[in-house]
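Much of the work behind modern protein science is quiet bookkeeping, done one molecule at a time. The protein below has been through that process, and both of its lines are reproduced in full.


***
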Amino acid sequence: MASNRSKPSPISASAAPPPPRTLNVQKFAECRAPELESLHEIVGSRLGHGFRIQREKRRRTTGHLVAKNRRRKRRKTGDGGEAEDGGKKVSRRARRRAELQRNPLTGFCVSGDGMKRLRTHLWHAKRFTMVKLWGFYLPLGLRGRGRGSRSILKCLKSGTLVHDASYCSPIQLDGPEDSVLSVLKMVLLPSISDDWKKLYKSIAYGVCYGNAMLYHVGTHLSQLIAPVMYMWRPFDRGNAHICVEQDHNSGRCSMPDENSHSNLSYRQLWIWIHAAAFNEGFDALRSACQKLMDESGVSVSCSSLVGLLGKLEVIGSKANQAIKKLLHPAPESDQAASRCSNSIEDPISRVKKSYIMHHAEQLPSNAVFSLKVYDPRDLPSTGTESIPEVAFTKQENNLQHDNVTDTSADTEDLLSSFWSEPQSNGVFLSDSEGLWDSNDKLSPPIQENILCEEKHLKRLELFCLDESNNPTPVTRCRKGSFQSCPLLLLKHKDIGNISAGWSIILPLSWAKVFWVALVSNGAHAIGIREKRWVGCNNGLPSFPFDFPDSEAYSSFMAAKCIETDRNAELRPPAAQPLKVPIPPPWSCVLSTIERGQSTINDLLTPVSQESDHEAVLEGTLVKPVSELLESSSSSSEQAVPSFQGFIPRTSDALSQYIEKKADKHLLLFPDLSLPTEENWFSCLTRCSNLKPYDRKLCFVRVLLHAYKEGFFEEDAVVCAPTPTDLSNWTSRSDEEKECLQIPQSVLKSYFSQNVSGKWELHLPADNAAWQTHRWPIGFITSGFVPGMSGKPVAVAYCEAKLISLLRNQQWSMNKKSRPEIFVLVRNLRSTAYRRALATIVLEQQKEDLDFM
């Protein structure tokens, strides 16, 4: 039986022949059409030509519910009623969805409460927790309790992250070049140098962008607004109203000379500002332009470009592969090539932009590269066309790089030569007329329904089906639309563990198209919280969270304090958490400065408080913090601001503070050269004669690493250790020493809040509590990333004079110089002091201008 089953049955001679290998579907349908029509008539006659299922035979599962009936009646009388034209009125849900799916040419969609929505709002609202921040509905992060940092950081190392930063908008300055520079010198730090050949040559010609800090006018650069990114439009734009050196006799366009910057009469500049400080920054720039107008009579136009441009940030180890896969350069139009037809010949004009895009990872940092790319939804199915290594024209004898034609080893040198000569190549590299000319209205991308209809018609054509029933042919679907989009690529710096990412600047109407394409190709979307995690893990500050000297930080912390208090009131009194100061009481550091050298000495003498609240400790008179603060202000009733002092952002600013304010008696080294073991003694001798302090607080940004163990939270206090702490720290004994802790009773009163709501440092009254009291020198603005393994980083700000005293003490004990400084960190809701190593940022780099 088994053998018979395995054998195939023989085919008889009378059996029907097998079906053909190919089948014409159209002819088969035509042959079977009479049979189908007769079968349809039979079924129709039996059903009375009513093919709908009878109501009594329908499946009803929720029709008997009262709530369903009420909802159905309300829908009939309300949204389900008939409109004036006789049709049914669309429900609110459908109308709102259609509103969110609209893609107008410019501007953000505004909700009923006046909050703006990003073009990717509908995509984010389905997946992310949305919050109201800075006038926008912004994605905070994935839904939950703020976890998932490990997957984010893992994707950063082995994948691609994408963030919609369209809430950042540019401000455009138009006017004479010298006048625009005068405006920038009033508000930017570091100020734009006059020697553009050496420092700002590539930025001046528009092939690179720069970072700076924006300040108010007339405040001597002490009131920070926000960190900004600025970029110039390249020279020679080919427009009649824009000045280009032109020989009217010959009619030729000539490139401007390097020595003739001041002779150019018209330039354009973009200053990108975060949404948290956009209004404040726009008012400051407009005030600077008005001040220049009053002094010199020269007008500089200051205009807002909110709602015109979008910005997508792509970061991660595979960011280069993501943009190469997504962005396919379209052929340049003849107008762009003939803008300066008789200009001097340069090799960059003979190189295709597809070749530069193919080697995008070899572009220099802060490079600006303009492209006109295809719609990512309409890429050819056969794949991208092969990109030649070097696409030169036939006139190779005029090239300056004859030896670089076939070898890929010299590709980096070739591309760097293009950016090293911005006066010749700036127009080709980074000038995008479609984005810079705000008067030119770009067409929005093709609508999804048109694109789907076109794909459907192509499928019908592929299957050789009849197209007579389709009134709209394929050629009519794209009428009035374009398949390409102009954009600017900005390359980030390679900082820490972050590979050089990219910022894509494009028209706002195209933001959703490229966003969906990036996510569909494997990019992981992140919100504001995850973006802050990425920056903190790599030691970069995030605005406004890590900029305590800005008004945006104060506003954000005030809103956070109100929300925290509201959430605490919803809990019963027994379950309410310990109330901590929000924002951190920066003015409490002034009490530590009042103590001077005694703050880092051992507290060996017991303290007895007298009736006048004075204590004698090691021969030093100690007053309560409230009296110290009152003596520092002109009036006891005057409220102390949340942040006193300033934060130097450059090595030059810190050097000037050391020379003028501290009389060169601080162990800070902004010149990027720490002392060696040979000359460290002279530095200690210099710092031992520290003169009396002034009340001007100077905070420097430091990076904190935990020493063996500990987790540092946001707003944690950084304290100064005593010599006993340092000896126990550096001892090599195998015995496990007990962790330093403050009493539980002192935890609630370490920072006390007075009637006016101001937080003050409360000195302990118990003699035993003084033995564990450590004076604050700074606060943490961004703590460790939760769930992060390895060597996490925290961002903190410490007072410059106090951290210099600690370095002086530690170098005297260890007899050697090292950049790290030993400090103690205590979370505000914890009693334990954790050991940490602090590194001053301005001692590791010349400028502290990079931010996330």
Remarks:
- DSSP finds 27 helices and 28 strands in the chain.
- The longest strand covers residues 224-232.
- The two ends are 77 Å apart (CA to CA).
- The first helix runs from residue 2 to 6.
